[in-house]
């Protein structure tokens, strides 16, 4: 950016957004900070760090000499994100609320609020980049330059209007460089630990939190041969590929359980993984071994597609991620009717999970994606 503009920065209280604001201020822009509060239920301080995060954000604003506003988007979050989050879990799928939060709150409710403040652009601390393609006049979403921190996966539902108003100042940097800038310029969050987990849940136990909103309906846990190994607490509380918290760690040692042929992958002492959820029969199916065939998918179908350019990419060879931090997987795209598409993978993919996002890439360009509706087991 060569021209000086009024930029409203989402200050989260973390180091990434702090350095984003510092970079913009150093470039001569008029910078205003906004702290977003997105969750109020049981905000008692035991697990939710919202109050402490606002204090940190305000401290950053003070060092930078910029204004900061505390804005409450809790009602919008509950209506647009959390309600959908619960619907997906109740249907037996595993949603990704961070994807929806970005599309509905950080780049919609926050963007609208920033425009009312007279902003010409908004900025966040996401590790991603935006560029305008001179040949097409379209805005492109690019991966962040730090491959270990790239967050384009969570931003794939942004559209042209949103990207045209957005800056990602730290997308050109590695995390080590971001921390160095914060440290050398006296930003009080330079050494602050990165936040983990879903934004509104914090560090609280997930199953305990979800049980406040979704009924527990126990049912059998079965292995591939149909033997009952235990009882689950409700299908909504498990996800494909899950290894911890199954409560059957000792089952494989009991006499008689391993009679007959050995499991197809990993041997009799291999760990158990969630492989399937049968909603109609309220049954959780588990298998032993990370590479069990039930955990590998050759293809998937996705729905509710959102494309950054405004239209689907041409059919053909691309790359995809079916979960965050997963390496790009070579695949072939086949668009279907409406907002539906199918992917055929060159190599089987592990624990492709309905409700998660399948995000497509052409090299460093994020094209968009959709919500995984189902998968086809590898043969």
Structure summary:
By secondary structure, this protein is of the alpha/beta class. The chain contains 7 helices and 17 strands. The strands form 3 sheets. The chain has a 6-stranded antiparallel beta barrel with strand order 12-15-14-13-16-17. A 5-stranded parallel sheet has the order 3-2-1-4-7, sandwiched between helices. Strands 9-8-11-10 form a 4-stranded mixed sheet, with no helix packed on it.
Secondary-structure blueprint of this entry?
Elements: E1 6-10, H1 15-26, E2 30-37, H2 50-64, E3 67-72, H3 74-90, H4 97-116, E4 121-123, E5 128-133, E6 138-143, H5 160-164, E7 166-167, H6 175-184, H7 206-210, E8 219-222, E9 228-232, E10 272-278, E11 283-288, E12 296-307, E13 316-321, E14 329-335, E15 341-350, E16 357-362, E17 365-377
Parallel strand pairs: 1-2, 1-4, 2-3, 4-7, 8-11
Antiparallel strand pairs: 5-6, 6-17, 8-9, 10-11, 12-15, 12-17, 13-14, 13-16, 14-15, 16-17
Helix pairs in contact: 1-2, 1-6, 3-4
What would you say this structure looks like, in words?
The protein has 379 residues and is of the alpha/beta class. It has three domains: 6-206, Rossmann fold (3-Layer(aba) Sandwich), CATH 3.40.50.620; 215-291, Adenine nucleotide alpha hydrolases-like domains (SH3 type barrels); 296-377, Beta Barrel (Elongation Factor Tu (Ef-tu), domain 3), CATH 2.40.30.10. 22% of the residues lie in helices and 30% in strands. It contains seven helices and 17 strands. The strands form three sheets. A six-stranded antiparallel beta barrel has the order 12-15-14-13-16-17. Strands 3-2-1-4-7 form a five-stranded parallel sheet, with helices on both faces. Helix 1 (15-26) links the parallel strand 1 and strand 2. Helix 1 packs parallel to helix 2 (50-64). It is globular and about 65 Å long.
